[in-house]
Amino acid sequence: MKRLARTGLTALATTGLLATAAPAFDLESMSAEDRSAFQGEVRSYLLENPEVIVEALNLLEARQEMAKAEADMSLVADNADDIFDDGYSWVGGNPDGDITLVEFMDYRCGYCRKAVPEVAELLAQDGNIRFVVKEFPILGEASLISSRFAIATKQVAGDEAYGQVHDALMEFTGNPDEVTLSRLAKGLGLDAQAILDHMDSEDVTKEIQETRELARRLQITGTPTFVLQDEMIRGYVPAAHMQTLVDDKRG
C-alpha cells in the first residue's frame, strides 16, 4: 500500500492538483488501514513539499480568472449594441477611432476621479480611441443628483456642454444642491434654470434606468468598470496598462 501511495503522490506532484488526480484512487474501496496509510502519505508529502499547494492554488486561481474573463466576453457580445451604440451616451476621444473604450462611472467614486487623468492621457497619446461615458450613479443621492444634472445638461445644451459639466463634477467636492449646481452651470455660460428644470424629466430618468439595467445584465456592481472592445475591466487601471491592453486588441 505504501508503494501505491507514493506512486499516487508522484502523479499529484506532477500535476500540482490534488483534486484533479484524486479520482484515480477509489478511497471507498480501500480498507480502513490502507486509507489511513494513504492519507498519512499525502499529509507527509504536502508537509515536505508545501510549494505543491501554492502551485495548485495559483493554477486554480488562473483557471477561475480565465473562466470569468470568458463569461464577461459573452456578456459583452450579448449586449454589444447597448454598450457601444445606445444612442444617448456621450462619446468623446476620437468618434471614428478604431478602438472603443466604455466607462461606467459615478461622480462620487474616488477611483473614477483617479481614472480621469489616466483616461485623458490615454486618449491624448493614442489619438485613435472612441470613448463612451455611461452615467451609473450607485453611491447615494448625491451621485444620482450629479448624474441627473449632467444628463440634463447634455439633453438641453448638447455634447460639448456635457463634457464641460462632466469634468467639473469630477472635481466637485461640495454638496450638489440647486444653488451649487446653478452656480456651476452659470460659470460655464449655460442656462442654469433650463438644466435644473429638466433634471427630473422622464427623458433623464429613462437614460439612468436603461444604463442601470444594462449594468445589471453585465453584472457590473462597482465603478469604474470599463469595456474595451470585447472584454470588461473591473476597476481602476493606469494609463500605461490600459494602452498595453489597447495595443493587444489591435494585434
How does this model look, in words?
The protein is an alpha+beta fold and 251 residues long. It folds into two domains: 2-77, no CATH class; 80-250, Glutaredoxin (3-Layer(aba) Sandwich), CATH 3.40.30. 64% of the residues lie in helices and 10% in strands. The chain has twelve helices and five strands. It has helices at 2-15, 18-21, 32-48, 51-78, 80-84, 110-126, 141-157, 159-171, 178-187, 192-198, 202-217, 239-250, and strands at 90-93, 99-105, 129-135, 225-228, 231-234. It has a five-stranded mixed sheet, with helices on both faces. α7 packs across α10 (192-198) and α9 crosses α10. The longest helix has 28 residues, at 51-78. The protein is elongated and about 85 Å long.
Supply database-style keywords:
251 residues, alpha+beta, Glutaredoxin, 5-stranded mixed β-sheet, 12 helices
Largest beta sheet: what is the strand line-up? 1-3-2-4-5
Helix content: 55-70%
Number of domain modules: 2
Return the structural class.
Answer: alpha+beta
- Kindly provide the name of the CATH class of the largest domain: Alpha Beta
Radius of gyration: 26 Å
Largest sheet: 5 strands, mixed
Let me know the number of strands.
5
If you consult CATH, what is the topology of the largest domain? Glutaredoxin
Average pLDDT works out at 88
